[in-house]
Amino acid sequence: MTIKLNREHNLTVNHKRIYRLMKILQLQSICRRKRRRYVQATPEITAGNILNREFTATHFGEKWLTDVTEMKYGSGRKAYLSAILDLGDKSIVAFVLGHSNNNELVFKTFNIAHKEYPDATPLFHSDRGFQYTSKAFHKKIIDAGMTQSMSRVSRCIDNGPMEAFWGMMKSEMYYIKKFSSYDELEASVSEYIDYYNNHRYQKRLSGMTPIEYRRYRSHTAA
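Predicted structure:
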């Protein structure tokens, strides 16, 4: 909030003043809900936790995280969002919303990211969900020249930034609204991720948006 006011309204105020004013106006952030855990399946392929909670990266395409989260619409119907997050600029590289949490959902997300950035060969980190531990997905990783990394069993913190993105997105978009249809949910997800990548300022990115920060880092590296 402080960054947005300073950048877009030509102000120079600190976060303490904004916090004080928000208390006076009775404005507050929305608390995040705990994420449900899924039943684990017997893996075909496993990889070590190569990422090892090293959540920093010097450039785009160095480290990618991925996961699937459940969302609901209508009278309790379920949808599943698969996404890939880059640790260099914290951007969402690719995402797909689907009706089923299956291989097709995850494979499609990976294909979009690889097609958009064919030269990227990141360390590719996920949990041990059945899609990521399949032989077919492992082959995709190898064929793309990437290295596979997986969280340890029951250690969601090993994929912390991806979990943090889900919490942020749900608290800022999903929990504050009821979605009557799949199409309505899909449109809101697309709108939010565009906002997150291109318009949501982040203190950890020197007050820039993810895409803005990527361009800045690319320019300074050159």
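Summary: The longest strand covers residues 63-73.
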